[in-house]
Amino acid sequence: MRATADVLQEIGMSGHYDVDAVRKEFPAAQRITYLDAGFQTPLARPVKAAIDRFLSEGLETAGPKSVWLDRVEQTREKLARFLGASADEIAFTKNTSESMNIAANALPLRAGDKVLMIHGDHPNNAYAFLNLRRKGVTVAFVPMTEIVNADSLRPYIDASTRAISISQVTFHAGHRFDIESIGALCAEKGLHFIVDVMQAIGVVPIDAKAMRATFIGSGSHKGLLVPQGLGLLYWDKSRAELEPAYLAAASLAEVPADLIARPDRLDPAPSARRFELGNFNLPAIHALGASLDMIEALGVANIQNHCFDLGDHLIARLDTLGVRLVGPRARQHRAPHIYVIALPAAEWLGHFEENNVRVSPERDGIRVSFGMFNTIADVDRLIEVIQRRGVKPSSRAA
């Protein structure tokens, strides 16, 4: 009897949604074996249509500004629902790095305070806080282990610790940290909690309130399907004492109608708009509105489970070849969509490129990252390309 995955592949289903119908919305995925969604997802037709609509309106009417700004707020509301937050807790930024820097500089950190981070996590999360060393803030790095949870961090908390900043999913090997237990630890200890969800959002369900995060930051060009140049920031509005390090008219509670600056009226907006500088990336926000509609139509939990199924198949095929997986194998500790294969990138990347397979070089090998459009056939194609070249003993599982 054929495997269930093979039957589902033949009828164009994943067991969670009609993956063939989704795949048709991503032309690039039909032309190449695209296994690089952790770097950037291909453009989807509905996302392109939203951008085209914006461009056509600008071309034909010089821009219906009030309509565009209304759509910004509609997308803000969609994003808030997606994160389990309220619209006044969402700010639009440029990217994850900007979101992390806004968060780091909004925290009331002083000389002698300490921030805990994970060694080897994304550098741009770390740099946002390392930059505070000029103010005397200490950044301490906790070793990265296969499982990172509250118990991993508790021994490193002391009287000077004020915050923990961490990714939900690591970019380099697909670790999925136990964010909710760490958030509970921060609540217990009175610490600020900052979470980078760039590699999780759009694939892993996110509940901002369950995380107990002070700030959550992300870009939108991976699981959110939007071209580069748009980020987001969630701010727990109960932390009203946290204010931006910079200020513009758009950040104020009372924007002067005559646009004359008044030094006696500098109160920041009561919403996350306090962290915005105005002049939004309008085409990208239009794109995000369309991508959120796509993701919600499928259900992010279904996307997660589809990617888990692909990952299970990948791991089984790698085991058959005797090729090692870098990072966690168990579902509860791994990201559903990011897998690093222990094949030296310097030796293998060109081979994949020659065979029309798109993957990323990573510090410990070749990173395979799935999107909502990938199929079992994509995994099998990857394995066939590996088999074609052959595997050296150093790449085999221990």
From TrEMBL:
GO MF terms on file?
lyase activity
The Aminotransferase class V domain is annotated at 69-382
The cross-references to InterPro entries, in alphabetical order and at most eight, read:
Aminotrans_V_dom, PyrdxlP-dep_Trfase, PyrdxlP-dep_Trfase_major, PyrdxlP-dep_Trfase_small
List UniProt keywords, sorted A-Z: Lyase, Pyridoxal phosphate
Q: Which domain of life is it from?
A: Bacteria
What is the protein name given in its UniProt record?
Answer: Selenocysteine lyase/cysteine desulfurase
Q: What is the lineage of its organism?
A: Bacteria, Pseudomonadati, Pseudomonadota, Alphaproteobacteria, Hyphomicrobiales
